[in-house]
Amino acid sequence: MADTPLPPDASSTVDAERGAWKSKLGFILAASGSAIGLGNIVFFASNAYQYGGGAFYLPYFIALFVLGIPVMIVEFSLGTLTGQSFPVALRKLVGKRGEYVGWWTTSSALFITMYYITILGWALSMLFGAFGGLLTDPAVAPFTGMTEPTAGPNATVYFFGMIATPWPLLAVVAIWAMTILILWRGTATIEKAVRVFVPLMWLFMIVLIVRGLTLPGGIDGVLYLFTPNLDGILDVNVWQGAFAQMFFSLSLGLGTMTAYASYLPKDADQINNSMLVSFLNCGFEYIAGVAIFSMLFVFALNPAGTTLSLSFFVIPQGIANFPFWVKGFGVFFFFLLVIAGLTSAVSLVEGVAAPLKDKLGISRAKALTFVMVPGIIGSLAFALPFVVDPDLTGDGTLGLTLLDILDHWVFRYSLLVGGFMECLLIGWVLGAANLRQFVNEHSKFSLGPWFDVLIKFVIPIILGVVIFFTLLADLTGGLYGEAYTINGFEWLPVVIPIFWIVATIATSIFLTNRPMHESTPHNVPAEA
After folding, report:
1. Are 105 and 500 in contact (CB under 8 A)?
2. First and final C-alpha spacing in the chain
3. What distances in angstroms separate CA 382 from CA 114, 181, 353, 502, one per listed residue?
4. CATH code for 24-512?
5. In sequence order, what are the beta bridge partners of 387?
6. Rounded to whole angstroms, what are the CA distances from 27 to 23, 82, 195, 435?
7. How far apart are CA 441 and CA 412, in angstroms?
8. Which terminus has fewer CB within 10 Å in the chain: N or C?
9. CB atoms < 10 A from the CB of 482, how many?
């Protein structure tokens, strides 16, 4: 079946009732805003440090062309070829098996959306804290070892004290309200928001770069970041980390890019669009790395850490040591986190709501409600302030413990597995050559047969290897979270991954077997 022609009614123009981008710029800003998020600002710098600074850049640059741009072309083209969002697009092109994969990926994206918005709620809470005493006053947290005031500002103490209060619950609701407001009229309101937020992200990051480079010693951090270590380049872990980071960084495997591209005309140049979005995303990561390394090395702070620890502990503590305008730069940083996260949250919610609208033929308002109700409940659960681990052997509160364990499983596996299955379906069932033919018809630059080889062989092998070694580490290193002290909730490390797997598979089966709304044209091969 690999080289069979496309189904005669597979291609589609943009449905006016679904919405359409008013301009190419609006689409590029929205797609790049989706890709640029919390992880781009801090997680890239963490990985770069962990894998040897400059040694990380060459593998990451290669990953951009071998993995990032080709898969981006696939996901954009699915949207423009069919005029539908991810699960429905796969159904039209490769049949029922594709829709199962699409809904499983979309269901996992909903879980990611829930805790991502919780993290944004914490960022909003820290933003308000930056206006107050977060970066200037001693702090006390309701945890053993943190019951005495610190000698000076301590972002870690402040953060754990903050998440043990009900205030983040209100912040989470506020973030959901802003997200739904931006999405309420579809592409019209999304485009208005990203035209403001995305330029602001770049402006604020440039301000942080200027500040970091003008600090004594700031250049040393940048030199470390860009100086290649040839010994590190030979380490297989560096390459594994670079390819995984690229997939996460571009928001691939979530269905969001296909949903956004479905609002484009069929003749959109998806090679050009994919390169623009990918370069904007990676360019932002590079300058974020410069900003963070220049600031952190000045104060001899170790930037190795998770997105959470870098965002809320390490970088704020570095800002607290600035010689002047501490509150101003603190507000700058957390406002940057909030608006960068909002553009990603908008695309995540759209990536779930659009397929519901396409499949069930419901209104946008109803689709957003179907996402918002369980979404808010889940986000509030991750913000629960109950202290279950006062000694901080794990995460302290029940909400953060839930988030940590779920993120470990969902984020580590759903994107990679979804991308792996997507490439197999497009490469071997639809036929990579067929998709390439469609893309070349509407692009200034033509893809060669090498594209087929990437989609059918190279990318599945790379993702398969990363998935295998990640799973092997999990299975041989003990169940994630079992070493935590979780008073009264010791069963969470076992139940959470099981719940995620069962819930997403059940949702996929249920929605795939629902009848397609009559107004949505589709083509399903008889044997699919």
Report:
1. no
2. 11
3. 8, 22, 21, 19
4. 1.20.1740.10
5. 397
6. 7, 17, 10, 21
7. 36
8. N
9. 13
Question: 3-state class of 387 per DSSP?
Answer: strand
Cβ atoms of residues 95 and 128 within 8 Å: no
Section 432-437 average pLDDT: 97
d(CA 125, CA 56): 33
Helix then strand then coil, in percent of the chain rounded to 5, is 70, 0, 30
Stretch 193-208: mean pLDDT: 90
CB 351 within 8 A of CB 255: yes
Residue-level length of the chain: 528
Closest listed residue to residue 218, CA positions, set 291, 294, 292, 289: 294
What are the structural domain ranges in the chain? 24-512
Rg of the Cα atoms in the chain: 23
Any idea what the Cα angle at residue 395 is, between residues 390 and 401, rounded to 5°? 115
Whether residue 79 has pLDDT greater than 90: yes
CB 402 within 8 A of CB 114: no
pLDDT of residue 343: 95
Q: Which residues pair with 397 in a beta bridge?
A: 387
Cα–Cα dist 450/454, whole Å: 6
Helix (H) or strand (E) holding 90: helix 86-94
Using one digit for the tens of pLDDT, what is the confidence trace for 135-171? Answer: 888 877 778 867 776 777 888 889 999 999 999 999 9
- The residue among 11, 73, 75, 90 whose CA lies nearest residue 451 is 73
The predicted-structure confidence for 175-195, as pLDDT tens digits, reads as follows 999 999 999 989 999 999 999
**Average pLDDT of the chain to the nearest whole number:** 87
- pLDDT value, residue 5: 55
What stretches of 361-477 show up as alpha helix (H) in DSSP?
Answer: 364-382, 398-424, 432-441, 450-453, 459-476
User: Is the whole model's pTM more than 0.85, yes or no?
Assistant: yes
CA distance 41 to 36: 8
Digit-coded pLDDT (tens) for 445-478? 999 999 999 999 999 999 999 899 889 988 898 8
Mean pLDDT value across residues 30-34: 93
d(CA 263, CA 30): 12
Q: Which residues contact 486 (CB under 8 A, 6 or more apart)?
A: 388, 389, 394, 398, 401, 492
Neighbours of 203 (CB within 10 A): 11
In Å, how far are 65, 213, 347 from 450, measured between CA atoms?
A: 12, 42, 31
Q: How many other C-beta atoms lie within 10 A of the C-beta of residue 483?
A: 10
Mean pLDDT of 362-378: 97
Q: Are 74 and 422 in contact (CB under 8 A)?
A: yes
